[in-house]
Amino acid sequence: MTVTSNLNVTNSFDLSDVLAIASVHPFYSSTPYPPKSEDLPILLAKHRKSTIDFKLSSFPLTWKEALYKEIARLTTDRDPRNGYRQETYISTTGGGSGKGSPMVFATDSQETRQQRAAIGSHLRSCGITGPGDWIMTMHVSGHLYRALDLMAEVLEGSGATVLCAGSQMEQDQMVDTLIEYRVNGIAGDAGQIMQLSRYISTLSEDKRRQLLINKVIYTSEPMTPAQHSFLNSVFPDLAVSSVIGSAEAGPWAASPAKLTETTKAEHYANFVYDQRLMHLEVFPFAIEDHHDSCTIDIQPLPDGEKGLLVQTSLQRMRHPLIRYVCGDVCSLHPLPESIKAEISPEDASHYKIARVYGRDRRISFDWYGEYFEFPVVQEAMRTKSWGILQYQIIRRYDGGDKNNLGIVLELRVLRHNEPGTITEEGLTRELRKLFWVFENNEELFDLRYLSDYAGFVRSTTGRKVINFIDQTQD
């Protein structure tokens, strides 16, 4: 039985209109200030009377460094002509290095609400959440981070009923809430999901039988095979789904449980996106050598080929997002027949797969004369028999003194001890082998096994666990 289409296509804009506004926006032109909301009808009417036909290919790629330099100026300029500071919704990044001020991105408040409604409909169309679902979201609130209200509204847009767990709720209170309100789903970033799940795994069998959890919706960071396996050991008959988004693009795609299940052992995640809401291009990695070029001759890659993801939002009009190099490594693919069969034909004809491989293609670090490619380390940490739920690598000066030439590689690990995992002693041997630890450098290798998530360094906004921190660069 297919799901009936419920997307209100008026939640998206025509590409030519978006490009017309972009042509007079300071992100993409020499215009000093963005338009105000009341200016849009006038600008669009003028555009439609003109003979100018804007093409997406005529716009250069937009790089984060240049974009945020302009954003920094507009954010603090109180000139009454500055439409950037008027009727805007402020999104902030939730990751990063864990220090410094978060980057912000402003969108039109009404456009933000429309986008959330459309993505909520997308979740419902994909069978992720809908009427009858009661979801408790644990997304962080506080500081400037907006994940809590974002995901609450998106889930409500799918038809689900949402309970928001405040930052002061202890885990026993969360469990009592899940039981009392007969909640069947939990949402949060992968770390929050695992933290609650680990607590639930320690409860009595009688207490666990009172839980009705059959859906998990995670965001913000990938989930490893060990994490998937652990979730399935805690909650029987569980459907695990994911939503992807950013401060710049907002929420733009989702991975239904069927896709998440089939890719959990892979080094990528498949997300379903709607081409009526987001236009995606994938460019060769060579574009990274052209940051300062106004125009480049490099063309987008065909479907199936891996490169850097470039986003053009069809839901952002007043502050457009045009050909934005978001940093993700991606390839584009047609919708699988298994998914297409469960979605209305009207929606399925517009849906496509974005296969996201992550952001760490070129991140690497050195320690004690050895050079470590971060993707290789990531792959090792996903080894199922190791049972690693979360890890963190910290490169720091010995004793915290930058005048000390000794560089310590600190590794913090949280693991489960489900059947099929090696012993802690066995894992220690494997980790020492991975990082080339011998008698001559073992005093600079600091391996710490944690009992919970409290021992990890978190980002200042989204409270995410940062996988790699280089304190020698502070």
- How many beta-strand elements? 19
CATH class of the domain at 106-271 and 337-348: Alpha Beta
- Alpha-carbon distance between the two ends: 55 Å
CATH homolog superfamily of the domain at 106-271 and 337-348: ANL, N-terminal domain
Mean pLDDT, nearest integer?
Answer: 87
SSE-based structural type: alpha/beta
InterPro entries: ANL_N_sf (IPR042099)
Organism: Penicillium fimorum
Protein name: AMP-dependent synthetase/ligase domain-containing protein
Region (Disordered): 82-101
In short:
The protein is of the alpha/beta class and 474 residues long.
Could you characterize the architecture of this molecule?
The protein contains 14 helices and 19 strands. The strands form five sheets. It has a six-stranded mixed beta sheet with strand order 4-3-5-6-7-8. The chain has a five-stranded antiparallel beta sheet with strand order 9-13-12-11-10. By secondary structure, the protein is α/β, with parallel strands linked by helices. Among the domains are: 106-271 and 337-348, ANL, N-terminal domain (Rossmann fold, 3-Layer(aba) Sandwich), CATH 3.40.50; 364-473, ANL, C-terminal domain (GMP Synthetase, Chain A, domain 3, 2-Layer Sandwich), CATH 3.30.300. Mean pLDDT is 87; it is low at 1-9 and 95-100.
List the helices and strands and how they pair.
Blueprint: H1 15-22, H2 40-49, H3 64-76, E1 88-92, E2 104-108, H4 109-125, E3 134-137, H5 147-157, E4 161-164, H6 171-180, E5 185-189, H7 190-201, H8 205-209, E6 215-219, H9 225-234, E7 239-246, E8 250-255, H10 257-263, E9 269-274, E10 278-283, E11 307-313, E12 324-333, H11 337-340, H12 345-348, E13 351-358, E14 364-367, E15 370-373, H13 374-381, E16 388-397, E17 407-415, H14 424-434, E18 445-449, E19 468-470
Parallel strand pairs: 3-4, 3-5, 5-6, 6-7, 16-19, 17-18
Antiparallel strand pairs: 1-2, 7-8, 9-13, 10-11, 11-12, 12-13, 14-15, 16-17
Helix pairs in contact: 4-5, 7-9
